[in-house]
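Customer escalation, tier 2.

The customer says the design service returned an amino acid string that "doesn't look like it belongs to this structure." They asked us to rerun it and document both sides in this ticket. The original structure tokens are below, unchanged.
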């Protein structure tokens, strides 16, 4: 099993990351593979409805979305952390 933990905070080592790290530790104790991905300080453009993803399987805008999208295929769980 693989779990993706998405850190939406622009502070890669702040409290949101700390909370996700605690979850990752718990998953590891249970023998579950997990990975924290920091996206809060990345430039991510919104969808422009060009349809490229349907034709090529990738977004036409080359940002972290293409990199993370491949990981969603193999993941069986998702945790999203966001600062409030």
């Amino acid at each position: 099993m693989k779990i993706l933990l998405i850190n939406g905070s622009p502070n890669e080592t702040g409290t949101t990351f700390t909370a996700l790290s605690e979850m990752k530790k718990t998953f590891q104790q249970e023998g579950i593979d997990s990975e924290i991905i920091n996206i809060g300080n990345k430039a991510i453009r919104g969808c422009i409805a060009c349809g490229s993803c349907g034709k090529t399987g990738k977004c036409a805008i080359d940002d972290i979305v293409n990199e993370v999208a491949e990981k969603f295929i193999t993941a069986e769980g998702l945790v999203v952390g966001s600062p409030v």
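Tier 2 assessment: The sequence is consistent with the input. The chain has a mean pLDDT of 94. Residues 15-29 form the longest helix (15 residues). Sent an explanation to the customer and offered a walkthrough call.
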